[in-house]
Amino acid sequence: MSSEPIEQAGVGVPDNFQRLWTPHRMAYIKGENKPSGSGEGDGCPFCEIPKMPDEDGLIVARGSAVFAVLNLYPYNSGHLMVVPYRHVADYADLDEPETAELAEFTKRSTLALRKASGAQGFNIGMNLGEVAGAGIAAHLHQHVVPRWGGDTNFMPVVGHTKVLPQLLRETRALLADAWPAS
């Protein structure tokens, strides 16, 4: 085999297209930092994040049974997840205090996102199990995705790219400041 680079037609040729490179997404695509198994000690990021300072773990708020954290691979700016501290995969396995606080933090997430970013609507839900689309199926987490009128522009449809106008640390700080008191 030749060690010379393979030429690819069109590479470097002006074609009037703008390109947004998102190399940070490769970590998600390749499954980097994805747990190696389903146990609590198998590299679960949702078990590790609460051990970090809030800024490093992108934690917006902490409760006694759950915490709210920004998604590293957001669908929209401000995409939060409400996560129980306990390593549990199924919603039916939550105890009553966990269930109640998960619901309360979901409600507070919407209030904080409305206050901090003027969110006009939300997609809220869980993917339970890998077949349902859970990226980390072993540790339950509820998504809270803010939405705005017109936020479905051409980029996701044509370019398969989301444009996020703010760095995650800045978003975390805004939402932490807007988080409602209990």
Automatic annotation (TrEMBL):
One protein family per Pfam: HIT
Ligand binding (substrate): 71, 143
Any one Gene Ontology molecular-function term assigned to this protein's record: hydrolase activity
Keywords noted in UniProt: Hydrolase, Nucleotide-binding
Stored InterPro entries: AP-4-A_phosphorylase, FHIT, HIT-like, HIT-like_sf
Motif Histidine triad motif boundaries: 139-143
Name under which the protein is recorded: Hydrolase
Organism: Planotetraspora thailandica
